[in-house]
Amino acid sequence: MEHLIFDLKQQKKGAVAVVTLDKQANVRLMTMSHYRSFKAGRRAQMIGGLAKKSPARLGIPSDGHWVVVVDMGGLRGQVRAGVNVQPPPPGLLPPLREHNPAREVAVREPVEPQGDVLGGQTWDVFISHASEDKAAVAVPLRDALAARGVTVWLDKTEMRIGHSLRRKIDEGIRSSRYGVVVLSQSFFSKGWTNHELDGLVTKTVAGEQTLLPIWHEITGDQVRGYSPSLADKVALSTESHSIEEMADQIAEVVRETAAEEARA
User: Fold this and answer.
1) What is the SS3 assignment for 44?
2) Beta-carbon contacts of residue 240 (< 8 Å; ≥ 6 apart)
3) Are 198 and 230 in contact (CB under 8 A)?
4) Which of 20, 99, 160, 219 is at 20 to 30 A from 133, Cα to Cα?
5) Alpha-carbon span 246 to 1, nearest angstrom
6) pLDDT score at 90
7) In the predicted model, is pLDDT for residue 182 greater than 70?
8) What integer pLDDT is reported at residue 141 of this predicted model?
9) CA distance 28 to 5
10) How far is CA 196 from CA 163, 192, 238, 260, in A?
């Protein structure tokens, strides 16, 4: 894809890349090593997404060699852009952050699936859902995460009784760093028994949670009625969080993972 690249050279954690644009465009921040992968058409970790206003500001999450990439996302025309870097303010304490349930989800490197499973690709986030919740939760969340530079695999197959939910979700988890399961009355009605769902959601790495449940139009008592231990898991709820807020929290954790990989 045709794009503009701005080499920021070595930058310190906390610096801010300020990007000016003459029209809306995709603005993404990535390390030089990930840019090489991006340019070669391989999977790359990045921060950012569609910038509708100028200037766009991207915080640099770790010390390293960073670049900013600007493109029109396949649209016609050209964009004019400029970048300057504001150094991290001296002596400032790190800001206090609200509790983010997504932080408590364990992270691991995805395992490349065998054969044609999931198209032979690995992803940041896998979203499992019932077909009834596609329009209200799954698709908007996928779009919001993609706008934040997060790669998402969304199961477009309707989850009907008789489909192997265990196999499909298991495949998604193996091929993704994070698994999101949208729990609702529709999801529970798809023929799952309590112990099957509970066993899947509580897959662990080093004893930590590897999936993030999202409760949609369902209460803690209803979840507990299907699986008492599942109700105790760290979760987000569409009643208390907007799609944008949930995407922000999940994307924040994905970015931190990218920063840790860049430092490695």
Assistant:
1) coil
2) none
3) yes
4) 99
5) 30
6) 63
7) yes
8) 93
9) 10
10) 14, 6, 24, 33
